[in-house]
Write a structure and sequence with these properties.
The complex is a heterodimer.
Chain A (H helix, E strand, L loop, with lengths): L10 H36 L6 H19 L2 H7 L1 H15 L8 H23 L15 E4 L2 E4 H23 L1 H11 L1 H6 L4 H27 L5 H16 L4 H21 L4 H15 L11
Antiparallel strand pairs in A: 1-2
Helix pairs in contact in A: 1-6, 1-7, 1-9, 1-10, 1-11, 2-3, 2-4, 2-5, 2-9, 2-10, 4-9, 6-7, 10-11, 10-12, 11-12
Chain B lengths: L2 H18 L5 H27 L7 H18 L3 H23 L5 H20 L1 H4 L12 E2 L2 E2 L3 H24 L1 H11 L1 H6 L4 H27 L9 H14 L5 H20 L3 H15 L3 H10 L6
Antiparallel strand pairs in B: 1-2
Helix pairs in contact in B: 2-7, 2-10, 2-11, 2-12, 3-4, 3-5, 3-10, 4-10, 7-8, 7-10, 8-10, 11-12, 11-14, 12-13, 12-14
Chain lengths: 301, 313
């Protein structure tokens, strides 16, 4: 096949091209992490594969759009946009998913699958089907020159933001009391109940946390990916691939695999545009066949 | 009435009803043919979900591969659609055997993901291999075959061909489930460990079930190609696999007839509701959620349980 045109450019331009792809890949990895962290925790703790997780990404983005339109502030949108998604998520968990805990996780998959239709059409109904844009404040637009390489300011913000969220999440899980309960629940929910952990409340809390992370992910994705009904599925599939590769229930796996998939996808699209889509699915197939529990997952068999 | 007589009466009624459909005009006939094509597709998936306990999220692969085979053989080699359908079913079976060979090594959620990934791989190929598949634009210009000198461009004839395929698949599945092989599938669904302990090579039977389901989906895909004379990469998209799951769940898993009814409900919703509102998927979603929550045995399963007092006929 014909290699990407960039390969023919001179060395300096090539370096710049690679650096740009690197920044884009890591930024995309951050978005994948915000999605897959919750997806992975929810599965690890509750054994629920939340197919509607992408819907919360979309709901977060559109909530941010509304807030920005009312207040004119991106920062306020970032601060508040997770609230409607979390409220809807809690209702969904308490009213619907909880009823099916006794029924095996395939029914829960089907249930959350049904919700994706409802959410996408509600968004289409309220906001229309056109691609919308989340505007950035002046402080986040434009580019920064770093060692001769031009980097969009917002991508850098996104990477830093993702790093901070990952750190906070890690501190919460590893250092806090609630985090210890979550880890205990992931390891063995049955014993966790036995030692007095209130599992139903814990489930609701983790579901809300995961949904909130997805909504924040949708908000920060808004300025670069655009907002449209269908963005839910667009992010859901790669996020699933991340969780499969990283291992269901493993935060570390979600983090490493997010960056990995983000980079593979971005570089793949730049250098092998004909095979990028193919590569990602092939990666998923290979991991599922050789390590169905994922690279960092625990074998539950 | 004895069970045998009741069954015979059921078949006669069904055949008579299908025979009369083309009297209702071209629109209804076309819609009915579409329903039957997807009924075949959904029934074939029920063999996996309802009878073998395998939730596949990539069943569109086999439907799509068969449809592509029919159209590509027709366009590239000028082969008749009849040969195309036979080849399509064969290709679907081979692809299903290959995908099944890998997928049945895992179960539960990884199985679901793996089947989806394989189907998406095929879709990626169909999007990128434009010279053969036409990519997202698809392939048009397929000439429908003739039957007894009449072209299949005739709507009524199309319907009768599809209906014949539907009846054959329905008959085949009912025989299959009643056979010892069907009992083994159900045994795997009920308790895989027990079947293994009893000495059944469970993996081999799962592969048989997966391959058969793929071939039957290929029947649906081939008829789809004859009916539409068009195919594009959308036919391999995972949302089509998702639609088939919805049909199976709405109608009732493990009932054979249920998924056919589910296909009818789904396509009626799509066609009737979408003429009133463009948000028909919202209603599909709501009905599907309610069905999963409160009617897990599906519409047909529920009706049957009432009619026969919970006994399986």
């Amino acid at each position: 096949m014909r290699p990407g045109a960039a390969l023919h450019a001179n060395g300096e331009a090539r370096m710049e091209f690679i650096a740009t792809q690197l920044v884009n890949g890591v930024a995309y990895g951050v978005l994948l992490f915000l999605m897959s962290a919750g997806l992975s925790l929810i599965f690890g703790l509750m054994n629920v594969v939340n197919i509607a997780h992408g819907s919360f990404f979309m709901l977060g983005a559109f909530a941010a759009l509304s807030i920005e339109r009312w207040t004119g502030s991106f920062w306020l949108a970032l601060l508040l946009s997770w609230i409607p998604a979390v409220a809807i998520g809690i209702v969904m968990e308490r009213v619907f998913i909880r009823k099916l805990y006794g029924r095996g996780h395939l029914d829960q998959v089907l249930l959350t699958f049904g919700f994706t239709f409802v959410f996408v059409d509600l968004v289409r109904w309220i906001f229309g089907a056109d691609i919308r844009e989340l505007a950035l404040p002046d402080s986040l637009t434009g580019v920064i020159e770093m060692g001769g390489i031009i980097v969009p300011r917002y991508r850098l913000f996104l990477i830093a933001f993702g790093g901070v969220v990952a750190l906070l999440l890690w501190l919460f899980l590893e250092r806090s009391r609630v985090g210890a309960m979550v880890r205990a629940g992931v390891d063995d929910a049955f014993t966790a109940t036995g030692i007095g952990i209130n599992v139903p409340v814990l489930f609701a809390a983790v579901f809300a946390l995961g949904v909130g992370l997805a909504a924040v992910g949708g908000t920060v994705a808004g300025p670069i990916l655009g907002l449209y009904p269908g963005m839910d599925i667009e992010i859901l599939i790669p996020a699933f691939i991340v969780v499969v590769i990283g291992g269901m229930g493993s935060l570390r796996g979600a983090f490493v695999a997010s960056l990995f998939v983000g980079l593979v996808d971005t570089f793949g699209k730049a250098y092998f545009p004909d095979f990028a889509l193919f590569m990602i699915y092939l990666l998923m197939v290979v991991v599922l066949l050789t390590r169905p529990q994922g690279l960092f997952g625990v074998n539950r068999a | 009435m004895s069970a045998g007589a009741r069954r015979a009466a059921g078949w006669v009624l069904l055949i008579a009803a299908l025979a009369l459909v083309p009297l209702s005009g071209t629109y209804v006939t076309g819609l009915a043919a579409e329903v039957l094509v997807f009924a075949i597709f959904a029934m074939s998936l029920d063999l996996l979900i309802g009878y073998t306990g395998l939730l596949s999220f990539g069943h569109a692969a086999f439907f799509g591969v068969s449809a592509y085979t029919v159209v590509i053989l027709g366009l590239q080699f000028g082969l008749s659609g009849w040969i195309g359908v036979a080849a399509g079913i064969l290709v679907s079976a081979v692809v299903a055997a290959a995908i099944g060979f890998f997928s049945i090594r895992v179960s539960g959620i990884p199985f679901l993901m793996l089947t989806m990934a394989f189907a998406q791989l095929l879709m990626a190929i169909s999007i990128k291999w434009r010279s053969v598949t036409g990519g997202t634009d698809g392939l048009s210009g397929f000439q429908r075959p003739t039957l007894f000198g009449y072209s299949l461009d005739n709507r009524a004839l199309q319907f009768y061909v599809v209906a014949t395929g539907f009846l054959l698949v329905l008959w085949f599945l009912r025989r299959l489930i009643a056979s010892p092989l069907g009992s083994i599938f159900i045994g795997i669904r009920e308790n895989e460990q027990r079947m293994r302990a009893a000495g059944y090579p469970v993996q081999r039977f799962k592969l048989v079930s997966f391959t058969l389901a793929g071939a039957l989906a290929g029947v649906g895909g081939g008829l789809y190609a004859l009916q539409n004379a068009f195919v594009s990469s959308d036919i391999l998209h995972w949302s089509l696999s998702g639609d088939a799951i919805i049909m199976v769940i709405l109608g009732g898993t493990g009932t054979i007839v249920g998924p056919a009814i589910g296909a009818g409900m789904f396509l009626l919703l799509k066609n009737v509701v979408s003429s009133h509102t463009e948000y028909w998927l919202l209603w599909v979603g709501i009905i599907f959620i309610l069905c999963v929550m409160f009617l897990p045995q599906g519409v047909w399963g529920w009706l049957r349980a009432r009619r026969f007092g919970g006994r399986t006929p």
